[in-house]
Design brief:
Chain lengths: 311, 273
């Protein structure tokens, strides 16, 4: 298994690799290139790296102008500012026209940790998901992040990749196929299914191991693409297992949990519950402590699975 | 086309704008009429474009950042042959090629969507930046409004354009001093716009009569001096239709039949059905 690496670091490396073979790729940042890791691209390609300073709305619109000029702009900053602050610009200047601006926003979710609730975006997926033309990826690990960057370049339209601050264990391999439109089963099981993504995959796999010790076989599925959502796999596995938990580092409103609920409604009678941030804001703390307190770590997932099966 | 002919043309286009809005029963006459000559200065005198090849890679770009003034732009594009003049009479209707605000997915000759105020100028700045990276020598022009200048995004875009020394970028202000809720000075004063844009790092020019095509052309031909250029055009909201002139109430209201007929009479344009 590959070494642990943060998705933002993998992003920075893949940008450089793609920049070397595709001159249309340009990169925009808002004074956070040392954190989003676009600094690597800036160093190698200074003539096509554009720092807009702390002015996210302008960065998004300028990127739209670059896309209208035949370029493929990657836009990076912290997820809280790149999604919510610049939302109407993303909506009207990018999504509405359907032009290929790629948003790779980092430090998403509770796992930004100590910076606190003002910097922890728990609604970014919900915001992007309501926009027509948008594709949304949540990488499982560093390896998948690189595949997503390549897939994003190939997609003729806007893409959001949700990257994180902490290092992530690798749950996929270099040769694991990445089909942007197909969810990937990471662990087989038939008693309950855990649909998950991003940093919570590792927690879900740990939860599945603990459940197995108690004789409960959980199927763990990596729903790396939140939009377009793989409804078919969701319904098929739900009907096979009869019980589904969604587990994510995002509000239970508007993210993977909502996408799953929408997919299953009318197509599955499986029991269903959502593990995620329960309609409240984050706060300061270590990511591990926050995951525990907000019930999105392995403990929380095990408890939710048992509760659902007991219903 | 010489200036005398262009002035004649302005009368016809002005009539087209009023007719479009009369038929659409909605839209924005005030700003369309104030900025018409600014756009004519660009399209009939300065910009390199090809109506037969709207996506020509080396064309000059124009972004109507104050997108609600699009009836003026549509009238010009139709006159230049981007689409049939007949299309003007379906403005804002379901299925129409001419949307309520500029939309590049629907309309040949429209480079980008605009109308959400502040975004057009910022997109135009990105286009000018892209031209620099691509080593293209086309120019990028945008027209902003007075009310629009209250958007913070306008100033974000100004700051980055100056930082990147975009001497292929021209921002024009349709300075008619009015916005929906009244006079700018009553709503939120713009202060001294020339000093503001100078402070933001632009080479600035003022056109005392922005409804005079020749005067606007003259300013457009003045040098950038290695910086982005700002042209403040003093205009009259509702210009050319007596009862609309300098009336904030005509920002976003369509004329009724009597008002339409009066406008045509004032303009001396025959009603062509």
């Amino acid at each position: 298994m590959a070494e642990k690496q943060a998705s933002r670091v993998a992003y920075g490396e893949e940008l450089v690799a793609q920049g070397r073979i595709n001159e249309k790729i340009v990169v925009c940042d808002a004074d956070l290139s040392q954190s989003t890791m676009t600094c690597k691209f800036a160093k190698e390609f200074p003539d096509r790296f554009f720092n807009f300073g702390i002015a996210e709305a302008n960065m998004v619109c300028a990127a739209a102008g670059m896309a209208h000029s035949g370029l493929i702009p990657f836009v990076s900053t912290f997820a809280i500012f790149g999604s919510a602050r610049a939302y109407e610009q993303i909506r009207n200047s990018v999504a509405y026209t359907g032009i290929p601006v790629k948003f790779v926003l980092t430090h998403a979710g509770l796992s930004v940790g100590e910076d606190g609730g003002s910097h922890q975006t728990i609604e970014d997926i919900a915001l992007f998901r309501t926009l027509p033309n948008m594709t949304i990826f949540v990488p499982a690990d560093a390896i998948e992040t690189k595949k997503m960057v390549r897939a994003a370049i190939d997609i003729d339209g806007p893409v959001y990749i949700r990257a994180s601050r902490p290092v992530m264990p690798c749950v996929t391999e270099e040769d694991t196929p990445f089909d942007p439109y197909k969810a990937a089963v990471l662990r087989e099981g038939s008693d309950i299914a855990i649909f998950t993504c991003g940093l919570i995959i590792d927690e879900s796999l740990k939860a599945a191991e603990r459940l197995a010790q108690e004789g409960i076989q959980a199927c763990v599925v990596n729903f790396h693409t939140i939009k377009p959502f793989d409804n078919e796999t969701a319904v098929e596995i739900a009907n096979k297992c009869g019980a589904v938990i969604t587990a994510e580092e995002h509000s239970i409103i508007g993210g993977l949990g909502s996408a799953t609920a929408e997919a299953l409604a009318g197509h599955s009678s499986a029991k269903f519950a959502r593990v995620g941030i329960q309609d409240k804001f984050g706060c300061s703390g270590t990511p591990a402590r926050l995951f525990h307190e907000y019930g999105i770590d392995a403990d929380g997932i095990v408890a939710a699975c048992k509760k659902l099966l007991a219903e | 086309m010489d200036m005398a002919m262009q002035q004649q043309k302005a009368v016809q286009l002005r009539a087209d704008i009023v007719k479009m809005l009369y038929l659409a029963k909605s839209g924005h006459p005030g700003g369309s009429l104030s900025s018409l000559e600014m756009m004519m200065a660009l399209y009939y005198n300065v910009m390199k474009v090809d109506p037969k090849n709207p996506k020509w890679e080396d064309r000059d770009r124009f972004v109507l950042s104050k997108g609600h003034a699009c009836p003026a732009l549509y009238a010009i594009l139709a006159d230049l042959g981007y689409f049939p003049r007949e299309d003007l009479w379906h403005l804002r209707q379901y299925g129409a090629q001419l949307q309520g605000h500029p939309d590049c997915k629907y309309t040949p000759g429209i480079d980008v969507n605009s109308g959400s105020l502040g975004q057009g100028i910022a997109i135009a700045g990105g286009m000018a930046l892209a031209a620099k990276y691509l080593k293209k020598d086309y120019q990028v022009y945008t027209i902003i409004g007075d009310g629009e200048s209250q958007e913070g995004l306008v100033w974000e875009a100004a700051m980055s354009a100056a930082h990147y020394k975009l001497d292929n970028f021209t921002v024009m202000l349709d300075h008619n001093h009015l916005q929906i809720d009244g006079d700018n000075d009553q709503v939120i004063s713009l202060g001294d716009v020339m000093k503001k844009w100078e402070a933001f790092g632009f080479t600035c020019y003022k056109v005392e009569d922005g409804n005079n095509i020749e005067a606007v052309v003259e300013a457009l031909r003045k040098p950038h001096n290695g910086k982005p250029k700002f042209i403040c055009c003093e205009t009259v909201k509702g210009h050319g239709v007596s009862y609309m002139e300098n009336q904030a109430g005509w920002h976003g209201k369509a004329p009724n039949e009597a008002e339409y007929l009066q406008a045509m009479k004032e303009l001396g344009v025959e009603i062509d059905g």
